[in-house]
TrEMBL record:
InterPro entries: DUF222 (IPR003870), HNH_nuc (IPR003615). CDD domains: HNHc. This is 5-methylcytosine-specific restriction protein A. Residues 363-415 form the HNH nuclease domain. Residues 250-272 are annotated as: Disordered.
Amino acid sequence: MEGFRDALEQVRSVLLAASEAAPPGLYSDTELLGAMRELESLGRLVDARRLEFAGEVAERSRRELGGERLSARMGCRSASELVERVTQVSGAEARRRVAVGAATRARVGFSGEPVEAQFPIVSTWLMAGELGADAASVIVRELGRAGTVADPTAREAAERSLVAEAIGAGEGGPVRCTADELRIQARAWAAYLDADGPEPDDERAMRRRGFRVGRARDGLIAVSGELMPEVAAGLTRLFDAHLAPRAGGGFLTDEERADPATQAETRTPDQQRHDVIAVIVASAARSGEHPKIGGAPPTVLVSVRAADLESGHGVAHADGVEIPVSLRAARHLMCTGGIQTVVVDDAGAILQLGSPERCFTPHQRRAITLRDGGCIIPGCTVPAAWCEIHHVIPDESGGPTHPDNGVMLCWFHHRTIDTSGWQIRMLRGVPHIRPPAWLDPGGTWRIATKSPTRIADQLRRRRERSQPAA
């Protein structure tokens, strides 16, 4: 053990000294690429030991060990979490190391007999420093999809072929296959090994179904996954219902494009589908039909400094996502879900906890629903059940949480009300709306409602005014 640590320290010292003596900027083109190749060779040896140690952690954290699992004794839920905390790598990288390390590790069975590694050829070349961690991960992941349905002889041939391509000993040798190129070949092998297999397609689909929320990139959170066909069909019908021409969507007829009320739609179909997902999530959380968290409906907590809100500069933070959200998004959520003031001192101790404020009650929401009938923006027919309640006069400006100061807006129009150009005012408790200048240069204020009963009343009054006096 001490010898291994001493060797690592020597390698580290030599590498640091070499880097300081000859930084990459001093190399010629040929020297730069040659040094990079040698450094990668060294890195493969290091990566092999990383995977080996992660595999050992996984072995000592087997479920069969119960409370004696290494991960449990260290206060972690799994082997990958323990690896993540010890090494400070990402959760995805820790899971990869554990998966590859466990699949390339020979072990001892319960009866004491030696058990060969699941991928022995990968293990051999990995430990020799010839096979990179990325390539090993691709082979383990893609061939592992075939599971137990693949013929063992064919699977060994696939593993041997892929390793040969990765180390430059295959048909394309001596050029090594990159990890991305290897992934294409590995998927072809996986399809060959399990050409639908003995299981029905539905069983395979049930096993592969999933939905993943990814990491932040450029201010957005990526999502991916595979849906069961009936779930995808239901989601598609929801999209169709809200993106159809009569729903103010992007697939408009010529007559509808000529109508100024529908020309306000500038979103792409992809953006509109995003907004449909947003209102599905919001309405589901608001419905009260889902499990509670801590005795309350699923609620997104957003924290923001009062000074940042007042100055208009800064960011807010939402639990569940790793990137900050804009103050505009924070104000949107505050308008919809209310605000609770928490006062802390410089050391972080809570000095004062205010009561939740500015939430429209269910009774108020029902009254506003009957009055407005849905999103009050012309051309938008998102139903009332999917809408949010917007404070026309913000709370910080003295606006009350009262039906006379609340109107229904869909997620998109609520999120963009401060920048879209649409203006809203209340006259004697009645919402009035004015379109953006580019849509209505005259700036005409008009009563806004989607309520069938109110529209019927308006038509009756028009008829009465148009009839000659008796």
